[in-house]
Structures are given as C-alpha cells and as structure tokens.
Amino acid sequence: MEYLSNGILEIEVAEVGAELQSIRRVTSPTEYLWQGDATYWDRRAPVLFPITGKVWDNTARIEGQPYALTQHGFARDMVFTKVVDEDRHMAFSVRATEESLKLWPFDFELRIDYTLLRNVLTIGWSVTNHDQRVMPFQIGAHPAFQYPHFHLDDDVHGFLSCNVDSFRSTCLAPGGFADSKTFDIEIPKDGLLPLTNETFACDTILDTTGEVKRITLHNKDGRPFVTIQHTMPVTALWSPCNGRAPFMCIEPWHGCCDAAGYDGDFAARAFMEHVAPGETWQTHYDIIIE
Fold it and tell me: What are residue 234's DSSP bridge partners?
C-alpha cells in the first residue's frame, strides 16, 4: 500500500489496479471511501480500462477478430509500478502484457496520477499508444463513497445535488446494456435529491448527455460531504442491492456500455476515444472533500 498526504488530506493507493483505497482528513477519523465489504461490493474505486460497462456477449470485435473482454476491462486487476513519488503527488504505470494482449490486442501504457491540493484530490489518466495503429479505448472512474451514519431503515440516507436542475438517464436493458428508453431525473427546488432505498431500484442512473459535470453527495442533514467534478461525456451513479447498500458510486466515464445486441466493430462503438501511434491521451477529474 502506498500513502500520500498534504497535511489536510491523506490517501492510500494499492498497487493492484493503482486503486484508491482510502480518503481521510488528517484531523478526522472519517473515512470517505467505501471500504470494500464483499457483502455488497468488494472493490473501492477501480479504474475501468479499456472499456466501461460491458461489450455485447463479452466479445470485442477488433479488425475482424473476436476478443473476450469482460465488464469494465482488465486494468483494475493488473499490478502497477510506482513511477512518481513526490510531495503531494504520486503516479503509477502499467504496460501491456502477454496476457492483456490476448484480451485486447494493443500495446498500451496506462498511467494514473494522484495529486493533493488543499481539500482536493485530482486523479489524472494518461493513455499512451505504443502500437503501430490507432488505438480505440474507453476509460472511467468507479469511486464509491460511504453514506455518513448509514442505517438501512432510514427514510433518507443522504442527498444528491448537481450542476443541472434535471437530466435524462438512459435505461439499462437486462444484463447491463444501454436501452433506447430513458427516464428523467428531476432535482427538487431546494437543490437536494433525497437518496432512499428506492433511488437505485433502476440499478444505475446513467447520464449520456454530458450535462452532469459536478455531483455532490450530502449527509442526512443536507451538509455537503464529497463532490466529484469532471469534464467527461458520461456520468454513472450506482448503488448495488437495489439501492439498499451503505454507499453510492459517482462515476465519470469516457465511455459507456454497448447497446443491447451490438455486434459491430469495437472502434465504432459509442463514446470511444482514439489515440494515434506514439501519442498520449490525457484527462483528469477532482474529488473534493467538503
């Protein structure tokens, strides 16, 4: 486990998946990140690469060849190497292996940076193409945040606010694939959407319009707890067990799951990024501890 602190926040990161394991204030015992109880979900904040969500039939069709690629990709299970160890900043990197090439035939390098500035954790991603052809990919975040003082029988576990008054969510077809149907999420006039045991009966709230850019989880008293700020085209909100879990995930994505029945080429999927040979693609998002 690797540790980083700026005197205000402290974080822990695992070598496997370069996955964030903990976010705390130095002066408080409060843990902001879900701690991975397998009763609900045994991960904490995996990085999703080279896909977000699922490809149809767990098969990516690349240049006419099928590749077995399961939900959210494989980078979250790879062992990363620490490549930067500085005051308030550390970074981890992983390169394609013989095993990864069997799943996705591109020579990639994925770097994940963690930087602390006051009460903000900035997480940066860099995807470098070491292959001889254009590399199509997706990448996304999946951090889970604990509901403060969670009790299953509470009517409200917390509140959600965001930068828009309403947005349209894509429905998910059985199996976790994008549907043509949608439903609307309306934020109440006070700006706080109650989070109840019914909020995630739909499994996932999925904004594919690109409108949602700043999402705040509030405690049961309405006080801000943690905020995600990003510039990505897709935002997923998820809590397992039909929403009866003690946490929710706020997930900014450059990507999305396949539409049900999609059997086209991998590179032509919706919400794909493409990086040329020898080039590096970069983005980042912020976790703000309120």
Answer: 253
Range of the domain at 18: 2-289
Residue 287 pairs in a beta bridge with 121, 228
Structural domains of the chain, count: 1
End-to-end CA distance of the chain: 25
Is residue 230 within 8 A of residue 143, CB to CB? The reply is no
Contact (Cβ atoms closer than 8 angstroms) between residue 224 and residue 242: no
CATH number at residue 272: 2.70.98.10
**Run of H or E residues at 100:** helix 98-103
CB 142 within 8 A of CB 72: yes
Sequential DSSP letters for 58-72: GEEEETTEEEE--TT
**CA-wise closest residue to 226 among 237, 235, 217, 239:** 217
- Each residue of 14-63: pLDDT tens digit? 999 999 999 999 999 999 999 999 999 999 999 999 999 999 999 999 99
- Give the DSSP letter of residue 44: S
Name the pLDDT band for 242 (thresholds 50, 70, 90). confident
Residues 6+ apart with CB under 8 A from 98: none
- Grade residue 174 by pLDDT with cuts at 50, 70 and 90: confident
Give the C-alpha distances (Å, rounded to integers) separating 65 from 58, 61, 245, 280.
Answer: 13, 5, 39, 25
pLDDT, mean of residues 160-186: 92
- Of 144, 114, 163, 165, which is closest to residue 226 (Cα–Cα)? 144
What is the residue type of 10? Answer: E
- As a whole number of Å, the CA-based R_g of the chain is 19
Task: Report whether 209 contacts 171 (CB < 8 A).
Answer: no
